[in-house]
Every structure is written in structure tokens, then in C-alpha cells.
């Protein structure tokens, strides 16, 4: 088995980026979900409620990010990594409330106009520690603005198995993984406790529960019923639909496409 794809999602719930190499950090890949859009109360926004967020794509450069609408490539927002901020505010993501750095008003105005709702962009500073639940952590690890865990892995065979059951196949971007591997049986990742990818070692913590976000077409922003409806017929465990495995980093600095994938 080999690592087929690596994805990062710099701004939570916006378009992801496929990369050939990624640096590993405790809270997730470098740049992965370090930014997040929130409403005026500081509550996180996602495609679950605002599917139009799928139409905003992010690109990463050495000193900045650029954001653009997928159907308006020329209308770009530049966000320097050293962008001025307006101080720390409380932001909420699921059960957690942490501090986020509020990005300056001009950038927030662009997002509000593009999405048609009042929203603000926040950055997770190094000082913010969003701790994993003790039952999953090994050494008190933290996570970014990701839903649950620092890393998410899915086997290509698992998606192939699902697509054989669908009338219209879906791409892997519906499931927003960080790592995709090829080879092995469908849902092989369900049986892993640890996995070595290149020289890095990860602990597999728990299955990833799926929601309506998997029904959002990442090219059009439109919602449907699949693949969640079909997944629920054979991947439901304890009233949750599972697809992919969450992980945390035990050791390693970097992974790259082509790395060997070896369950431990």
C-alpha cells in the first residue's frame, strides 16, 4: 500500500488543496484548518449549513493565501500570513470554546459579500491549545479547527467499494480526508491501531462519523441525498454512518505521495 494523495484545508470548510509533500505537526498538517470562518457570535460556519462555502477555493503560497470563487477565478482575495489582526476573540467549534485571532475588517467584508452573510475569519494562534479528549490523546495532544482529530485517512478501495453501489459515483473530496492510500481491501483502515507512513507513525483513534456535508457537490455547492443515503445502508454503527479513520501523530516530520503505508 502507498500514499496516493495528501490534502490540506487551510480555511475550515472551504476548498481543499492536494499537495505532494506535507509537514507534520501535532495539531495536523502545517496550514491545515488553522483558519476558520465564524458568525457574529463566534460560532464556526461550515458547509453543513452553508453549502455555498464549497465554492470558495484556497491556494497557498510561501507568504500568503489567496481565496477565490471557483466560477470567478479572477476575483481573488489575498491574505498575507503576517496579516494584521484585531485581537483575540472567543470562538466555538462543537463542544469547544477557544481563542482565535480576528483577521482585519477588509478581509471579513470580502467573505461576507461573497457568501451573502455576516462572517469573520479567525486564525488559531500557537498559544491556543484545543485539547483532544483524554480517552483519545496519548500525550495531551491538541487539534486545529478540524472537527475532531488532527488527521483523517481513507483507503481508495473504500471509496471504490462505495461507488460500486452508487448510480453516480462521487469523488474523494466529498469526505475531506488528509491522507488517501491505494492498495489493500475496502475498509482495511477500520482494523488498524497504528500505521507507519514513510517514516511517520500515527495512532488510529476512532472512525469518522459522517453527516450531510458528504452530500454537497464540491464543484457546484448543491446538496443531494448521496452518498450518505447509500452509506447508511451498510456503514451504520451505533446510529452513526462511518467512513474513514481519525488519527493523531506519534512521531515523524513529513510525509509525501508515494510513501509506503504499513499497518503496525
TrEMBL record:
Q: Where are the transmembrane segments?
A: none
Q: Which domain of life is it from?
A: Bacteria
Q: Which SUPFAM superfamilies does the record match to this protein?
A: MOSC N-terminal domain-like, PK beta-barrel domain-like
Residues annotated as domain MOSC = 124-264
PROSITE patterns per record: MOSC
Fetch the InterPro entries from UniProt: MoCF_Sase_C, MOCOS_middle, Pyrv_Knase-like_insert_dom_sf
For this UniProt entry, the molecular function terms from Gene Ontology, in alphabetical order, are: catalytic activity; molybdenum ion binding; pyridoxal phosphate binding
**Coiled-coil regions listed in the entry:** none
Q: Name one Pfam family in it.
A: MOSC
Supply the PANTHER family for this chain: MITOCHONDRIAL AMIDOXIME REDUCING COMPONENT 1, MOLYBDOPTERIN COFACTOR SULFURASE MOSC
Supply the name of the protein.
Answer: MOSC domain-containing protein
Taxonomic source organism: Cecembia rubra
Amino acid at each position: 500500500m502507498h500514499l496516493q494523495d495528501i490534502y490540506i484545508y487551510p480555511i475550515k470548510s472551504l476548498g481543499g488543496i492536494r499537495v505532494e509533500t506535507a509537514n507534520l505537526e501535532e495539531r495536523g498538517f502545517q496550514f491545515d484548518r488553522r483558519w476558520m470562518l465564524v458568525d457574529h457570535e463566534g460560532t464556526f460556519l461550515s458547509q453543513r449549513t452553508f453549502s455555498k462555502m464549497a465554492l470558495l477555493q484556497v491556494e497557498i503560497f510561501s507568504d500568503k493565501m489567496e481565496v477565490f470563487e471557483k466560477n470567478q477565478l479572477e476575483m481573488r482575495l489575498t491574505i498575507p500570513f503576517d496579516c494584521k489582526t484585531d485581537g483575540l476573540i472567543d470562538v466555538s467549534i462543537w463542544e469547544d470554546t477557544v481563542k482565535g485571532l480576528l483577521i482585519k475588517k477588509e478581509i471579513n467584508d470580502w467573505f461576507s459579500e461573497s457568501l451573502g452573510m455576516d462572517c469573520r475569519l479567525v486564525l488559531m494562534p500557537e498559544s491556543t491549545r484545543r485539547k483532544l479528549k483524554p480517552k483519545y490523546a496519548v500525550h495531551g495532544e491538541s487539534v486545529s479547527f478540524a472537527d475532531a482529530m488532527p488527521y483523517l485517512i481513507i483507503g481508495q478501495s473504500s471509496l471504490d467499494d462505495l461507488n460500486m453501489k452508487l448510480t453516480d459515483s462521487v469523488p474523494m473530496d466529498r469526505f475531506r480526508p488528509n491522507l488517501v492510500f491505494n492498495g489493500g481491501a475496502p475498509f482495511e483502515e477500520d482494523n488498524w491501531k497504528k500505521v507507519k507512513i514513510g517514516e511517520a507513525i500515527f495512532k488510529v483513534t476512532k472512525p469518522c462519523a459522517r453527516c450531510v456535508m458528504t452530500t454537497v457537490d464540491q464543484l457546484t455547492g448543491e446538496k443531494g441525498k448521496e452518498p450518505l443515503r447509500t452509506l447508511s445502508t451498510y456503514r451504520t454503527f451505533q446510529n452513526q454512518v462511518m467512513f474513514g479513520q481519525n488519527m493523531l501523530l506519534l512521531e515523524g516530520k513529513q510525509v509525501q505521495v508515494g510513501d509506503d503505508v504499513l499497518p503496525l
